[in-house]
Amino acid sequence: xxxxxxxxxxxxxxxxxxxxxxxxxxxxxxxxxxxxxxxxxxxxxxxxxxxxxxxxxxxxxxxxxxxxxxxxxxxxxxxxxxxxxxxxxxxxxxxxxxxxxxxxxxxxxxxxxxxxxxxxxxxxxxxxxxxxxxxxxxxxxxxxxxxxxxxxxxxxxxxxxxxxxxxxxxxxxxxxxxxxxxxxxxxxxxxxxxxxxxxxxxxxxxxxxxxxxxxxxxxxxxxxxxxxxxxxxxxxxxxxxxxxxxxxxxxxxxxxxxxxxxxxxxxxxxxxxxxxxxxxxxxxxxxxxxxxxxxxxxxxxxxxxxxxxxxxxxxxxxxxxxxxxxxxxxxxxxxxxxxxxxxxxxxxxxxxxxxxxxxxxxxxxxxxxxxxxxxxxxxxxxxxxxxxxxxxxxxxxxxxxxxxxxxxxxxxxxxxxxxxxxxxxxxxxxxxxxxxxxxxxxxxxxxxxxxxxxxxxxxxxxxxxxxxxxxxxxxxxxxxxxxxxxxxxxxxxxxxxxxxxxxxxxxxxxxxxxxxxxxxxxxxxxxxxxxxxxxxxxxxxxxxxxxxxxxxxxxxxxxxxxxxxxxxxxxxxxxxxxxxxxxxxxxxxxxxxxxxxxxxxxxxxxxxxxxxxxxxxxxxxxxxxxxxxxxxxxxxxxxxxxxxxxxxxxxxxxxxxxxxxxxxxxxxxxxxxxxxxxxxxxxxxxxxxxxxxxxxxxxxxxxxxxxxxxxxxxxxxxxxxxxxxxxxxxxxxxxxxxxxxxxxxxxxxxxxxxxxxxxxxxxxxxxxxxxxxxxxx
Length: 777
Fold this sequence. Notes:
Layout: E1 12-19, H1 26-40, E2 45-54, H2 61-68, E3 73-80, H3 86-89, H4 98-114, E4 118-127, H5 138-141, E5 149-152, H6 159-171, E6 177-183, H7 190-199, E7 204-208, H8 218-233, H9 236-266, E8 285-289, E9 292-296, E10 305-310, H10 313-316, H11 325-337, H12 349-362, E11 369-373, H13 376-395, E12 404-409, H14 418-422, E13 440-443, E14 447-451, E15 454-458, H15 464-467, E16 471-473, H16 476-479, H17 482-485, H18 489-508, E17 512-518, E18 522-523, E19 529-530, H19 533-545, E20 565-568, H20 583-586, E21 592-595, E22 607-611, H21 613-616, H22 638-657, H23 661-669, H24 689-695, E23 701-707, E24 710-715, H25 728-736, E25 742-744, E26 746-748, E27 751-755, H26 762-776
Helix pairs in contact: 1-2, 1-8, 1-9, 6-7, 11-22, 12-22, 18-19
GO cellular component, one term: mitochondrion
Main location: mitochondrion
Subcellular location: Mitochondrion
């Protein structure tokens, strides 16, 4: 099972014992704490868990605890006899994955909680970054559990640095440090410095005398250690720490219990009708890791947190997993190196490297300049400014600039800023906005969908004469075989329709257009509309070559002709649809493209608007007012740029490593029977082909689409559209789930969509598919 049981229980206080280094006395401190917890709560259980242990069995830490704290129930999950690092010791046995280790720890915590109230200490091996059996850092291994930490500081020479470094490594990964435990040392006095250091950060500490030196015999040694443990566990300051730890546990749960009520009184949520909001339906998130939120479960009597699959990829931003340590460290590095620096006439390495990387991987000879902004909407605002200005400068229209419109697609939406909003047709998003004035024409278009197991291209209702009847295809790959389809009846009809509409608008109605703006392949906010790629390809081609747009002679193949073409890749770009850029799927390259969402792996906001030199040249002039006077205080924020560079590198690495190969093969097998040319771009999805086909037969489903990490299910509804509530029942059913596992999704009217990350495990997706089939079929 890819889903994890709760790591936070009302009746079970669970703490993780980390050491700032090896040989700092973790097990000795654990022994003192187990005895003190038992003394403080005599009617409750105390457990000690050592997930991974190396070395001779008779020297194992769990045996030490059992010997000197006999009321404690001890357990070791994975014992390796060789006294070396776990990653070396595990070589001689069956490979142990991090997921398996996590599952075993959580299963033990669950068993403890179900057997009665009490306390469990989970002691790690070595230092914070000691390797796991798989070779990863144990700080990353245990991160999804996010147990509160008791850090045993290093009292040796150099221990101050090691202890602070250990704290920072844990802190940057989202751990909460509840207390610092340390031995007193008269020579180095580490404990006095560290006590003051951690007190300034609001973290309590406990300093204890070190254990006595070893006795001359084993019996003498055991007697001396028994006396030491009795004395230490009876100290008032030890009891104070035990009381504080217990109070912090209770406060954490109390805080989670009250957050939704506090939020209801103070928060104004986006895209939300607040008449439908109450504390009962606000989801409280304690943390997130990988594809899952850890959400508070008020209905549970004991297990407080429930893993909840992030089915909307956190509004389409999540690609590399929540809390990804590589991205967190990248952000910390850039924050420490730069903070933020203004970006007018300056350059810093993260911004330059990101621009070079993005241009390289887009592999579009038309594009050469990168403009930075904060999010997709502002990036689209910039793109529209660029395109309309370039057109106006070229054509020198003798009309007010505000009369220049754009050409787009029905159902498109490009953001909430004024210019981006005006580039979309009237809709529920903007019809109540006072300053909205949509300027342009929005083409209706044929849509791709699977209906009753068949891939079809369906014309808009009432437009069969313009586009032809519904066309059935043997595979998704065949639909993307654009070169083979160009000479088809559909291709000829599309071109004719586009030319006739533009001729009417321009020559008969006197409309003036300055740009083509569209989301390649899938229109997100409009309802996950899957446009026929042939139509989008031909719309671009007609606009670039039509006599209706008499461009001056261009100087190179990269100079825009007709009108500048803008691809809004905020949602669809960076492998969302299975390729680095969806322009590849259209076999048509833009003059301007906009990239956000997955750009930073879901960690920080950033957007890149990438333009051609011919667009850039339109802003060259003798006066400052000729320039693109647009920018933000946090333009090219070094943290965002550095994280984005790491994110792109990781996405490219995932593709090269072949992590998606099995999914590609699954979809490729469905196209072998079809006649697909060698030039066709492979279309594939992480959602299994058999599942997509099966769910399309459900009585409640009108159609389904799947591409890359996107899955969208359109439910039957006579009153379809954004105001439809047809999908809310399924949404609630998935979120209701069970105490073990829930799925959080968003809906767009009667469309329920599911978004995997680019690192989602196949077993997770198969389980999600099973839940959807059970809910619909």
